[in-house]
Structures are given as structure tokens and as C-alpha cells.
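Board notes (copied after class):
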Amino acid sequence: MDKKVLIGVALAVVGIVGIFVYYVGNTEKNEENGRQNVLNLNSSSLELIQTIPLPNVSGRIDHMDVDIDGQRLFVAELENNSLDILDLKTGKRINSIETLHEPQGVVFVPEAKKIVVANGGDGTVQIFDSKTYALVQTIFLSSDADNVRYDPYQKLVYVGFGNGGLAVIDPIKEELIGSIKLDGHPESFQISDELQPGIFVNVPESNSIEVIDAQKRTMVAKWPNNESAGNYPMALDEDSHRLFVVYREPSEIHVVGTDSGKVVAKLPVSGDPDDIFYDDENRQIYVSGGQGFVDVISEHGNDYREVAKVPTDAGARTSLLVPQLNRLYVAIPDYSGEGAKIQVFEIRKSSN
């Protein structure tokens, strides 16, 4: 081979190697800068203070609720077909209710001393005694019993189910007393006794937020989603007349006026979000997503900005804010082989 050709080939190889080294170095630098940005954001708002193990729990974990006075956490373990009851003082399991059917939603009703569990697998709502954990009633809905809410003002339990309905249950009488028709399967919904008409429901199948008159049990408004889809989590700020609706396509939060249905602000959040909570005292919003982060967003009037992005783990989609205990609980499924667990975060007021 000609010497000039060899020199040319050698120079080309050196050039390619140089470009590769430069690219790798800059990629690592950008990744490190990204990690540093996350660490900087993590300097406030949430501090991991405890981890509660969930032995022998596999698969996806869904929603949670709490017994404040009894210091108990209830965890719906969807793919494990079980409900764990955890002692928050000792950080240990008290009991486990098994042989459920894909439990998705759970609520504790203190006045009735009952635990209400919604099963997605067979569409049942099961009511358990909160002292003995014995099953006391089963209510059969059409299918896919999902999110559950208790309204202490009306003393009623609402359960999203089927192809479009909210079941209305009297937890003291343990009876189904009515249902509300929707235009698709409901995901998260919020009940307000201060803001009329009263119930705001995410219905991704109809690509909308549906507004329900709680007294008449009828739909009175339907706000279409604009440029976003997959509205699953929802939270409510009654004082400011604001709904916080989180979408998955793309992953972003919309701040919606409850009087008009208009979007007043929006910003991106981490991927695969499934729970959101509004912290009235600290004026912060917490969004948990399966991408492995809790996004913390501060509220100042109509100004909303992310102040923290707290690492959790892959698949950690669900969480529970308990303001009375100053805690945020995040469910970590056993996707990594390290065991399922609940991460307990103490809430610290952001300085941002």
C-alpha cells in the first residue's frame, strides 16, 4: 500500500478515536450534570427517614390509606392479591388480608371502623372489620372496581368502577345506595363539600374531566382534555379553586380552575405518574411516578415550579400524603429483587 495512503488512513483513525473520546467525555459530563441537578433539587422538601419492608409481596402495588389514631397504613397489593396492614410506630406488618382479587383502592372509615377494598379482578367491593380484619360484606359491581374515596361530610364511600360509573356506598349500613353514570371508566376523582357541584372525575376513556352534582348524582359539565391524554392522578386545592390533573401523554401537570375548567398553568413531570397530592400547609404538590421520582412543585399564586425531584425506585407509581403525620409514603414494588417496601419521607418546607 502506498505510504501516503497509510498516513491518510492513520490520520483518519486518530480523528475518529478523538471524536469518540470527545463524545463519551461530554456524554458522561452531561449525565453527571443531570445527576447534580437532581441532587440540587433534592436538597429540600422531602427527607427519607424510614423504610418499611413488605416481605413476600410481589408485583405491582396500588393505592394506600391510613388510620391516623391507630397509626396504621393500609396497602393494596394488586398483583399479590393482598392488603397489608402496617404499624407505623414499629415499622412492621400487623396483618395481611389475602385471597383478594387485584385490590386497587382502599379506604379506612373511622366512624364505621371499617376497611373498604375495591377489587379490579372481579369488580367486588369488600368491607372488613378494622379490628378483627374479618370480612363483613361483599358488594358486587359490574367490573373493575378501582379508586375509592370516603366523604366524611356525607358519610359515604364512592368507588369508581366498570365502563363508566361511581358506586355510592353507605359504609355503616354496608349497602350500595346508588350509582352515578359516567362516559367511561373513572380514574382518580376528588370530592368537595365546599365547591359545588362537588365531584371532579378523571375519565381518560372520554378524554375529559367530568363534573358531578353530588346531591343529584348526575353529570353537569364535561371539560375536554386539550393537547394531552391519559389523565389519571388528580388532587384538589379547595381554597384556591384549583384542580391538579396529571397526564401521561405527555407526562405533565395541568392546573385547572374549578369554576371554569380552564387550564391556568402546566409543567412537565416525571414519567408514568399515578398519584398526586396537594399539601395545603406547605403549598406544595407531590407527584409520584413509575420512572422512579417524586416531583415536588411549589405553589405561589398562579406560579407553579418544580423545587425537588426525589429519587425513589422503578415502578414506584403510588404514594400517600398524610399531613397530620407530616409524612409522604411511597410504595416500592419488588422489581429489582431487593424486596417490596414502603419508603417514608418527612416533609420539609421548601426554601424556594
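Comment from the instructor: The domain at 3-347 is CATH 2.130.10.10 (Methylamine Dehydrogenase; Chain H). Residues 3-43 have pLDDT under 50 and may be disordered.
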